[in-house]
Amino acid sequence: MRYFQTLTHTHNDTATGMLHITADDSGNLMPRISLKHEGDYVAISASYGPIEMALRPRYTDLMFGLTRLQPIEGLQTSRQVGSGQTYIALGLQPDGVLVLRPTLIGDGGGHITLNLTLSSDARATMMHWLEA
User: Are the CB atoms for 69 and 92 separated by under 8 Å?
Assistant: First the structure.
C-alpha cells in the first residue's frame, strides 16, 4: 500500500522566482516540491528529508498533462510527463487533490518514487503560478 504525504503550504519566492510547496509539519523529513521556470522547461525539485529528485519537464508537456486531468475514481494517476527514465505521474482526485509521483527508473530491477499529494488550495496556487 502506498503512503502519500500531503503538501498544503505554498510560498512564492519572488527573489528567486521559485514556488515552494511544503507539508504542515516542520519535522526533519519536511517533504517539499519546488518549481522554477527555466526557458521552455520547468525545473522541479521534489525532496523528502535528505533525498532529492530533480526533474526538468518541458513547460508545454507539463501544462498539457495538468490541464487535461480528470478525476477517475479508483485510479491514482492517469498521466505521465517526462521520459521513460524520469517522469512525474499526475492524477486528480474527485475532491480536487492532485497526486504527484516523481519517479526515477534505475533499470529492470527497480525505481525510486516519492508519493506526494497537493491539497486543492496548493494545487490552485501552483496552477496560478504556472499561468494555467
Answer: yes
